[in-house]
């Protein structure tokens, strides 16, 4: 992994891919968890719907049994007579009335026993209390879980026993009419269906928190802690929606669903705490997290593998280019090329280096060997013209072999040396700029696509006389001290303009800064007039030559640029320039 992380483009790609994969993984994980949570909430809603349906069926079954019992009462005259005896009497009066109305040739009918066998199912049914009322009072028959019967007589209708709350159960009211005269009402039956027995059938269901709420607002808790659940249930009832989410804390939510019973006038409320639900399903969520994490790791490993392979080929390409630039054509171990553009480029580049090496060996080296004897014989007589001729021969050979790049470099080098060795020492500034341009062009060959230069010199400065070859050492300082081979944009700019009383020439680059201490030291040494040894020989030499040539009208400044690099300013007064021009004409 470290191999491709050193390359900026692949480092950026890997970071972008990693961020993308992590975001996609988190999004998929969150989406999966949301789908699972929605499914779990749906299951809880279905559980609540099933529980509500079972409660409704049980209540309807009890309602049907009560209706069947009323039909049984009206079809049995003996049972009606016993009910009349029970209605409005106390225990003693009821027993006396039963004995007086009994016949030796007919079985004695007992209204409580008939209710016990038909409705209470031996004390195991849902109906736990039956009361028979007149307008002022009522008598009560109760059945416990063991099937035992108890009676209460002559209780006022306002007694606590008759208060209808959902904590006790559901009360069915049935009018008792005279069978012989339907319009005449004898009293009223009240059948109490126990809430404990009704909702006991759903308490074993997987209900987190559930309750039944009567129309008056009474709450019967089916599942959950009493205080918190009752508070949440009342909030749900006040909310008014049939389902939705409810805030239970800073970041906690609860899902609720309600079912309204139109037949029995109550509301069934089920609440699921999402935090509790998530804790219950933590194992499933952990598995989802591990699957998503494993998928992200696999994708990232695949990305790393591809980036690493491409980076290896790109590094091989860069190394091959560096070998060409340094004329290193030694064979290298063959690489395993991939079947993509990078592999094609790397393979072609290696083939090019191999062919170039063979071409140089068969053409240039052979000719150099042939000339070696002659060069040794003439080494004490060598002169610039022999150098020019030799460079021209090499350039012509490069042209014959279609090496245009090499030909241009040699031609530029030859032109530069031809201008240097000319006898004239005083040349126009335009010619000095041409010398600098040839030198910079050679540096362009050395640093292709990494170095650029630009001249912005006004015509008024072109004809000014100056000493030869002083701009090249200033530019060379940039390549020695300020140039950054790793940067793709190294720039050298020469600006020249005319002001009211002087001419200004600037050499500006975007290389490295000079430290403040070092800059102060250079300025101090340039301003000294003695011959003390200095380490900036080229810069001191330029300063001395120009100062000697132009006199007091010349000055030189060295400063750091604001953003990057160094700026060298050469300032020449117009008076000094005119004196030099006059002397040159003489």
Automatic annotation (TrEMBL):
Keyword set for this entry?
ATP-binding, Cell membrane, Kinase, Membrane, Nucleotide-binding, Phosphoprotein, Transferase, Transmembrane, Transmembrane helix, Two-component regulatory system
The record ties this protein, via SUPFAM superfamilies, to: ATPase domain of HSP90 chaperone/DNA topoisomerase II/histidine kinase (SSF55874)
Q: Which organism is it from?
A: Cohnella nanjingensis
Could you tell me the membrane topology recorded for this protein? Multi-pass membrane protein
Q: Where is the Signal transduction histidine kinase internal region domain?
A: 374-451
GO MF term set: ATP binding; phosphorelay sensor kinase activity
- Membrane-spanning parts: 284-307
Check the record and name the InterPro entries matching this protein.
Answer: Bact_2-comp_sensor_kinase, HATPase_C_sf, Sig_transdc_His_kin_internal
Q: What is its main location?
A: membrane
Task: Name the domain of life.
Answer: Bacteria
Q: Spell out the subcellular localization from the entry.
A: Cell membrane
Q: Any idea what this protein is called?
A: Sensor histidine kinase
Quote the cellular component terms of the Gene Ontology held in the record: plasma membrane
The keyword Nucleotide-binding is assigned to this record: yes
